[in-house]
Amino acid sequence: MSSTAKAWSAYPYLIPTSISELIITFFVILSTYGLYKLFSLILAEINSPLRDLPDPPSKSFLYGNFKEVWEEVSLANSVY
Q1: For the chain (length 80 residues), average pLDDT per consecutive 10?
Q2: Tell me, what's the pLDDT at 1?
Q3: 43 exposure class (CB count in 10 Å sphere: 0-12, 13-18, 19+)
């Protein structure tokens, strides 16, 4: 018996015994990785230094500065 087989034989509960256990294990690993990536993205947004930059005063609660930006873009496009 090889050393790898001896190592796995010491922990028989770690080896999936059926296809359904293998699928569940794969799903759990995949979901754990997905949650890790999601939380790392959220933490990156929360800890971003760009959050501390001041923004211009907003004219509208609903639209913010979207109308002013849209007007400037349309003026810039009409010049070209």
Answers
A1: 65 76 91 97 90 81 82 72
A2: 56
A3: exposed
Question: Encoding tokens for residue 72?
Answer: 């400037």
**Which long-range CB contacts under 8 A does 39-45 form with residues at least 24 apart?**
none
Is the separation of the CB atoms in 30 and 37 below 8 Å? no
Structure tokens at 65: 């500065």
| Cβ atoms within 10 Å, residue 68 | 14
- As given in the structure block, the two tokens for residue 4 are 């790898």
Query: Judging by beta carbons within 10 Å of its beta carbon (0-12, 13-18, 19+), is residue 15 exposed, middle or buried?
Result: exposed
| 30-36 long-range contacts, CB within 8 A, separation 24+ | none
- Note the pLDDT of residue 4: 65
Residue 64 backbone phi and psi in degrees, to 5: 65, -130
